[in-house]
Amino acid sequence: MGTIKLTWWNLQNLFDTDDDxxxxxxxxxxxxxxxxxxYAKKKxxxxxxxxxxxxxxxxxxxxxxxxxxxxxxxELLTDMGRADMEVAVDVSGTSDLRxxxxxxxxxxxxxxxxxVESHMVHLRYRTRDIYTAKFKIIGTEEEFTVIGxxxxxxxxGRYQSEPNRIAVAExxxxxxxxxxxxxxxxxxxxxxxxxxEAVIKRWDSNVIIVGDFNDEPTDRSILEHLKATGDMDRVTxxxxxxxxxxxxxGRYRQQDVYLYNATWKFISVDQKGTYFIDSVPATGTRxxxxxxxxxxxxxxxxxxxxxxxxxxxxxxxxxxxxxVNATRSGRPKKFNKKNGKGYSDHFPVTAVFEYxx
Length: 357
Description:
Distance between the termini: 6 Å
Strand order of the largest sheet: 5-6-7-8-15-10-9
Mean pLDDT: 91
Number of strands: 17
Shape: globular
Number of helices: 8
Order of helices and strands: EHEHEEEEEHHHEHEHHEEEEEEEE
Largest sheet: 7 strands, mixed
Radius of gyration: 20 Å
Low-confidence stretches: none
C-alpha cells in the first residue's frame, strides 16, 4: 500500500522584503522592520514545523495560503531540505489586493503534475483565486485533483462579509461539478451508447479541497453552498448514487454533488481549532467559542471508497504540539518579528491518502 501525505497551512503573511508596486504589502518591507534576517527566520521556523508533520516525515503535498508568490514557496522547500518536492507553478500569480496567494508543492518522485488552473472569483474587487492541480500517482493509473482556496476574511464582521464567502463557495462547487459531471452533449452521447459505467466513474472522481474558509463547517457557505457535510451517508449512500440514466439531461445536471468534510469531527472537541479569536475590534464582536475550525479538508465521494485512491479518515488531524507551536491553552504561537520565535496564527491540517500499489 502506498501513501500520499498532505499538509495544509495558512502561513500568516509570508512576504519577502521587496515592495511590490501592485500589492498592499508595504508593512512587509525593511522600512517597517521586515528585514531580510526576519524574513529568513520566519521561513526557517515554518520549514522546521512543516518537516515535523506526519511523524517527522513531512508531506508529499504541501498546500499553503497567505504566501506572496510561488518563488517564496520554492525558497521554503529549500529551507525544508526537500529537493524531492517541486512547486505547481501558477503563471497567473495573484490579483488579491494584499498580494497574498494560494500555492501548492508536490513530491515529484511520487506524483506527476498533469495540469493546473487558476480560477478567478470576481467580487466588487478581485479576491484570491481558487487554485486547482491535477495529479497522477507515478506507477499507477490513479488520478486526483487538489483544490486550494482562501475565502474572504471576517475582518468586516462575520455576517457582513458572509456573502463574499458564499460567492466563493459557489464557485468551488461549480468547479467540483465540472470535474465529476459530463457536459450535456457528452451525457447524451454516453446515453446513446448505453455507457453508464463512464458516467458513474466520473461521478466518483477523486477531489480534495483544502483551504482557509474563514467560516466553520456548520456555516452556510460550507454546509449549504459548497454542500460539504459531516453526514457520511449523505455523501456515499444510495440517495447520492448514479444508478441509471436520467430521462432528461437537466435532471442529471441538477443533481447535487455532496462532499464530505473530514474536519467535521473536530466540532465536538473542546478547545480545539485551527484558529483562535477572542474578538473583532472593528465590530465590537466578542466570541464565546474562540477556537474555530477555519482550515478544513473536504473530499468527494470517490475518495471515500475502500479501494483505489482513498482517504484514511483516522489520519485527519490538526497539528498541535504544546511544546512547539501552541501555548499551554492550545492557541497558535504567532510569529514574532522582534524575537524571531513562533510560526503562524493558524495550525496546519494534515491527512494521509492511501492507494493500492
